[in-house]
Amino acid sequence: MNVVARLASISTALPVALPQTVAMKWALEVSGQNGRRRLIPAVFRRVGVQTRHSVLARPAPLRQEFFEPARDDTDCGPTTGARMRRYAAEAGPLALEAARGLDTTAVTHLVTVSCTGFHAPGFDVELVRGLPLSPNVERTHVGFMGCHGLLNGLRVAKAFVEADPAARVVLCAVELCSLHYNYGSNTRGLLANALFADGAAALLVDATPGPWTLAATGAGLFPDADLMTWSIGDHGFGMDLSPRVPDAIREHVAPWLQGWMNSQQEQTDGDVSWAIHPGGPRVLDAVEEALELPPSATAPSRAVLADCGNMSSVTLAFLLKRLREDGARRPCVALGFGPGLAIEATLFR
Fold this sequence. Notes:
Layout: E1 6-13, E2 16-19, H1 20-31, H2 40-46, E3 51-54, E4 57-58, E5 63-64, H3 80-99, E6 109-114, H4 123-130, E7 138-143, H5 149-163, E8 169-176, H6 187-195, E9 198-206, E10 214-221, E11 228-233, E12 236-241, H7 245-263, E13 273-276, H8 281-291, H9 295-308, H10 315-325, E14 332-338, E15 342-348
Parallel strand pairs: 6-7, 6-8, 13-14
Antiparallel strand pairs: 1-9, 2-3, 4-5, 8-9, 10-15, 11-12, 14-15
Helix pairs in contact: 1-2, 2-6, 3-4, 7-8, 9-10
């Protein structure tokens, strides 16, 4: 008997809400008098984000105390060590908040995803102790895969379930992007500051009958390997987004996707719904144009971007949750882009 893995449920969690107007105000305060200060308002307004969430935000009154104003143009802000200590303190509680929304009875495997922090024992151990799960649960971490990391995690969960029909897999992603605020003066860093946000999601994957089965996964590397990078520096992790990313997606996504869909004997016609990672409005525009999609196809992605910002790997979980709750038709194709420039896809039926 063929075993089919299914996305059984999704639960999400967000820290304190941060209106984009307040995030812009904080960015102006932190920037001091560096040369890119005048660009901040325009960039923050054009990225399609209305509200974000941050573990650094404190409510009533809304404030943050982690990033101090730059002393001069050489000030790069907190060290990576300081940022990782904050990650270690904040990632576990947010992950637990998301995972407690699932039925974690008899869980056999725990898959965790994150690209915004490292520490050991990690938030996977906090999940085992806090939910609690069996101390014998089998743990796997998917790290540093960027915005498509959730799809990598789903591939791992799918493999566990299809190898053992009794497997019940919790997949938990947590990203604290706001820890990596960039003090530098380059426009690419400013774009990342304006887009990225914090969040967590937990997904249950098992072999129970029902909709939203994980029919297939796919992956590809586009020729332009330096257009999106994510590197560890002395003062946080540095995201470098080339302005050529949308053009590369526009050029390569349609032929790659058509080949992959053909291999799955599935056609990308009007009967398919789309879960496209909202890396930014220009990324969504590029996918929409390349695949000749109507605006309605990317509307859920734009809504998640507006409500939550880009939470890296976590974002697709929020999007899938919204689509499921809205009764989106299947097949559904989930797409994510990451460092490489790489594409990951999952087909749900």
